[in-house]
Amino acid sequence: MNQDIIISVIEMLGTFAFAISGIRHAAAKQFDWFGGYVCGIAVAIGGGTIRDVMLSTTPFWMTTPIYMICTAVALITVAFFGRWMEPLKNAWFVFDTFGLALFTIAGIQKSLAFDQPFWVAIIMGCITGSAGGVIRDVLLNNEPVIFHKEIYAMACVLGGLVYWLCILTELPAEISAILTFAIICLIRFLAVRYHISLPILRDV
Amino acid sequence: MNQDIIISVIEMLGTFAFAISGIRHAAAKQFDWFGGYVCGIAVAIGGGTIRDVMLSTTPFWMTTPIYMICTAVALITVAFFGRWMEPLKNAWFVFDTFGLALFTIAGIQKSLAFDQPFWVAIIMGCITGSAGGVIRDVLLNNEPVIFHKEIYAMACVLGGLVYWLCILTELPAEISAILTFAIICLIRFLAVRYHISLPILRDV
Amino acid sequence: MNQDIIISVIEMLGTFAFAISGIRHAAAKQFDWFGGYVCGIAVAIGGGTIRDVMLSTTPFWMTTPIYMICTAVALITVAFFGRWMEPLKNAWFVFDTFGLALFTIAGIQKSLAFDQPFWVAIIMGCITGSAGGVIRDVLLNNEPVIFHKEIYAMACVLGGLVYWLCILTELPAEISAILTFAIICLIRFLAVRYHISLPILRDV
């Protein structure tokens, strides 16, 4: 019961932070409110929607309006209180990382519930956590930032491998999820703190 | 019976105008005939395809070749009679607006027929009417025009709300559809006539 | 039996060549290893995934990890042996063309197996063969190359028409497939050798 509340709170904070990320990128391109809302929604629900379409199930956001409402609140926040957001940037980063970790775990668990093998579940976890940002960059006509900046999606992949190991060693699902959550957040925090990137491909 | 014919005529005019829009944008980027055809198709069927995938049903264009043929006619029109199109631009604008209104209503009605709640149906109506243009802009490597120009997708959302109100007040479906059609066209005409846009998001 | 082995070998060569194409384009944009892998995957499985989503079936790559492994091998090849790839460019071109032909035929046959009419099957064959390259270009923020370069996707369409003719004249499926394969490869080789393009659309 308490656990469900904690998960719901993290999910809403993560959705809010994801939506903020989309809306702020849209603002940097002088988009209007509608464009900002669509970019916010794209980040907040894009990854999970791709996952659900591939799993041949109804996209998760069609079962409750909470994600639409949460993005609307994020839009109002940026539109009216945008100037006060800059000092809070560490908070957004932390919420965004929590969202990344939680969405990755949710993607893995949902895929396993649909009887997918573990390697598919890890890919789906990675898509759930990071594909929304790619859609945002495509809509904004930018090169996807996760393809050449600090480690982001690889944190989801490594977290997925940790989850797999936990399940293989028969740890209970809750402990596995908490461990995975901690690992993804840790990798992301370290990557940004120390500017850790993957090697760049040489042009050939 | 007569009513079905009217709807079919509007649908073909709308599909034709949507395809023309994609093909002309492709021509502005020096695409070849194939590229033009794909951009035309993208505008004509892109939104409805996303809707149908999310509703877990077969994309509507796979059940009849009429949309492919209509786009082929549009391609031939632009390729051979392009120079005579400029004076007709008001006609394209009117057809395009008719298409927007009709596709929005079709998207709402199909979603309701699939037992979706009304707020999902309005989103699906908006996607049906306007997502094709976004796909066109993504394929052409442009910033999506509906995110920073005159009101376009918001006309679908407002039309959807009107349709909802009509149904809530137990108006018959046909009257509701005609009213919604009129509202969407009116908003779009006024928006373009008086350059009405949504507020731009400030960069934060 | 032997025939299955030949098809599997061509499929792996084609997947490898498609993945190489995505990874090399990513390298030209200074993407990191993860970005390269995603672009490689996008070319290798993007078209088939769109086809499977439209046919309302599970994407083919979720049933075996072979495509993920093949793309990983391609990534290692580019990352470590990239400097030796230039002299082999004719080999990549040949493999890529084999992949295009084989994927087109596979797309047609799978669509027919799902009881789609032939005109849908030809479109699906074209999507299976060429949509991956479009997704790559969208992710890389380039204009899709198949919309304004030598004939590429039209080879799939023409190959599909040949396959249709063969089936109409009641040729056995294997002979039809071999003929179609040969035609697609021939058109592609001739198009590149003699720089044959479709006409460009005039800006109107």
Characterization of the model:
The structure is a homotrimer of 204-residue chains. In chain A, helix 4 crosses helix 6. The first copy, chain A, starts with a helix and ends in an 11-residue tail after the last helix. Chain A has one domain (3-193). The first copy, chain A, is globular and about 50 Å long. Helix content of chain A is 73%, strand content 0%. The first copy, chain A, has 204 residues and is an all-alpha fold. The relative contact order of chain A is 0.13. The mean pLDDT of chain A is 93. Chains in contact: A-B, A-C, B-C. Chains A and B meet through helix 1, helix 2 and helix 3 of A and helix 5 of B.
How many whole angstroms does the radius of gyration of chain A measure?
17 Å
Gap between N and C termini of chain A: 55 Å
Task: Give the oligomeric state.
Answer: homotrimer
The overall number of domains of chain A is 1
> Which H/E pattern describes the elements of chain A?
HHHHHHH
Low-confidence stretches of chain A: none
Q: Using DSSP, what is the number of strands of chain A? A: 0
What's the mean pLDDT score of chain A?
93
Largest sheet of chain A, described in full? none
The residue fraction in helices of chain A comes out at over 70%
Number of helices of chain A: 7
